Amino acid sequence: MLLAIRDEFWDKGYAATSMDDLLRVSGLGKGSLYGAFGDKRRLFLRVLRDYDDANLLVLRERLASAARGIDVVREFVLGPTGDPTGAIARRGCLLANSNAELAASTPDVAAEARRSYDAIATVLTAALERARSEGDLDPDIDPAETARAALVAQLGLIALGRTGIDIGALTVMARSALARLLPTPAR
Predict the structure, then answer these.
(1) Residue ranges of the DNA-binding region (predicted)?
(2) Which of 6, 7, 25, 34 is deepest in the core (most CB within 10 A)?
């Protein structure tokens, strides 16, 4: 039920999702929905937090299982280009979409975005520290700064992907950003 609610917000955005939409996709009556989750804003914040936590868990698990730390950062930046049809790129990321729509007017969304982006940057920093120890990252590159730059690159790709830009062009942009962020270390 929460996944259906999340997808409704993701596909339509917060403002365009009505309570009737939420009742329809949840299968709950108005009293049950309000009793379980409170108002629309609190329900939205709940599904946004769940979404962010699930993505962070996947990123942490990927780092734990990756053969090389650098692979985690590359896959993260390339994420929006992963679907050759471009459908994933056009849908964007629930957090990035919500941040763009609501952060200026909704402090709770801005705070959740900062929390999630900080946590992502922490995992990417760990991946880059590992990459440096594995010899895949120039020792002069600061892992924390580079992690934030990788996050910025991915968010830019998400924003461009939402415009419907050609997936091939988006992939070229992602690879170009990675080449600059993660130059091959001198051996």
Answers:
(1) 18-37
(2) 6
Q: What are the tens digits of pLDDT across the range 74-87? A: 999 999 999 999 99
pLDDT grade for 51, boundaries at 50, 70 and 90: very high
> Is 86 in contact with 78 (CB distance < 8 Å)?
no
Which residue, among 42, 3, 15, 98, has the nearest Cα to 33 in the 3D structure?
A: 42
Q: Is the pLDDT of residue 103 over 80?
A: yes
Q: In residues, how long is the chain?
A: 187
DSSP of 90-142 = HH--HHHHHHHHHTTT-HHHHHHHHHHHHHHHHHHHHHHHHHHHTT-S-TTS-
